[in-house]
Amino acid sequence: MYKRILGLSVVLLSGCSTLSSDDDFKDAINEVTRKSNYISIEAKDITPVENRSVGANALRNRSQLTANYAITAEAPPESYLAVELSYFKSSYEYSSVVFNDIETEIIPYSPSTESCSEHCTSTQYFTFPIDNEEIVSSAKTGLTYVVKTQNDLSKLSFTIPAGYFQAVLNEKTLQLEYAPSVIQQPVAEVKVESKDSKPVEMSKYWFDEATAAEQEQFTEWAFANRKSISTQLKSDSKSVEMLSYWYEKASTEDRAQILTWLLNK
């Protein structure tokens, strides 16, 4: 059974030291995990430079890259950036990210939180995919991304320097020297892949990231709550938290698909 790759990796927020944009990035890699068909390189989280000439100002941004590289003919999961973004509380949340003229919806990996003292702040936790070719170009020029609200009411712009991405590419080169050779893909093989809904896709992902005990805990809870959510699944585990989050978001049909998948595991 798969071990946790990321801490979510996407728990950038795992306590590893945070890099600054003027770091030399000699120690930028947090963890490398080898799966059966790919290598996952998790960089440490970084505080990017905020471009204050664009829109509003953020209170905090911690970004983290996880890059996945194939070692067999089977395609690996998408590489992605995970972000923890805090700002003064308002009536909106950020819903998409733009870089290199490409706009994509952000994917929450944990529910947004709020805190109040003298002022109230909101924090969003999300990811967005980044193509491995984009990592290569970002290692030359850096990466600037803009987070936006749905109606463009607010924008925030951040830049991650090139050295951060180059450190990941350097680690990739080192790791692939010791990876098994790529298996030749069968000729003329046609695969028809079904497209899972986001709750199904994320439930499968987080189940594979969970420990055996966490998987058993979630499975028992999911079957007990197959028609409607009558009890909350409580755990300090990020994997279990995200499993319950996506299962609760799933439709009745999605839940049936998740339960069928669990039975076949």
Automatic annotation (TrEMBL):
Name the UniProt record assigns to this protein: Lipoprotein, putative
Organism (species): Aliivibrio fischeri (strain MJ11)
Keywords: Lipoprotein
Key word Lipoprotein present: yes
Domain of life: Bacteria
